[in-house]
Amino acid sequence: MTESTEQLDGNPDHHRPIRSFVLRQGRLTKGQERALETGWPIYGIEYQPNRLEVNQTFRREQSQKILEIGFGMGDATAKIAQTLPDHDFLAVEVHTPGVGGLLKLMQEGAINNIRIIQHDAVEVLQNMLADESLDGVHIFFPDPWHKKRHHKRRLIQAEFIKLLCSKLKVGAYIHVATDWQEYAEWVLEVLSAEPTLKNSAQDYAEKPSYRPLTKFENRGIKLGHGVWDLVFSRI
Predict the structure, then answer these.
(1) N or C: which end of the chain has fewer CB within 10 A?
(2) What residues have CB less than 8 Å from 106, skipping those under 6 apart?
(3) Please, what are the domains in the chain?
């Protein structure tokens, strides 16, 4: 794992690197520990700065390959993988409890169409994924850094989106969901400014049927909070 990444544009004037996570600690449960011990050798992919052959990894040539960036505890990723069994999911997360949580859900649900890389997603994109190798990307509830002055700490910024788009096939999609309105406005601004992307809606999209409602989202909706989905396609 890494705590930082190199600048995407190599500009030495940028002092804060783009990274896909905010540092935090969490304790492993016994179930997560067991899942890591038994599941990681089967479903885990070690980070290395070499191109990953995605089709060979899943052994399915024709399936759509979807990148899941920062899957948290894995609840949504596991449900999506069950909903879309003909798709394959490459899930990237830094925090060990989340990796253990997803592996536990995979074992309980006999889910076989997910592989996990425990590393910073920016470096995975830079060093492991080939250009035009992805059919879709999900970034659900990223750490918002929602204030304008925090813009350089955000994952979703112009340099990152340009890198991400280079890994998408023509017609592939980016789906971002956030429960921070200010962050949703920022994401809309950044994605709309990328010339290789087209919005699927006038501004925010209806929630696609494959994205489940998380327990936190259900709780927020009952309290009157909103969730904003943005879906753009590669042109």
Answers:
(1) C
(2) 35, 39, 43, 74, 78, 81, 112, 114
(3) 30-234 (3.40.50.150)
How wide is the angle at C-alpha 32 spanned by C-alphas 229 and 44, nearest 5°?
70
The amino acid at residue 232 is F
Instruction: Give 149-203 pLDDT, tens digit per residue.
Output: 555 557 888 999 999 999 999 999 999 999 888 889 989 999 999 999 999 999 9
pTM of the model: 0.88
Q: Which residue has the tokens 């696609």?
A: 208
Tell me how crowded residue 55 is: count the other CB atoms within 10 A of its CB: 14
The residue among 30, 50, 192 whose CA lies nearest residue 123 is: 50
Active site residues: 143
| CA–CA–CA angle 203, 206, 212 (5° rounding) | 135
Nearest to 114 by CA among 151, 150, 145, 85: 85
The order of strands in the sheet holding 197-199 is 44-45, 114-117, 87-92, 64-69, 134-140, 168-178, 228-234, 197-199
pLDDT in tens, 23-78: 666 789 999 999 999 999 999 999 998 888 887 788 888 899 999 999 999 999 99
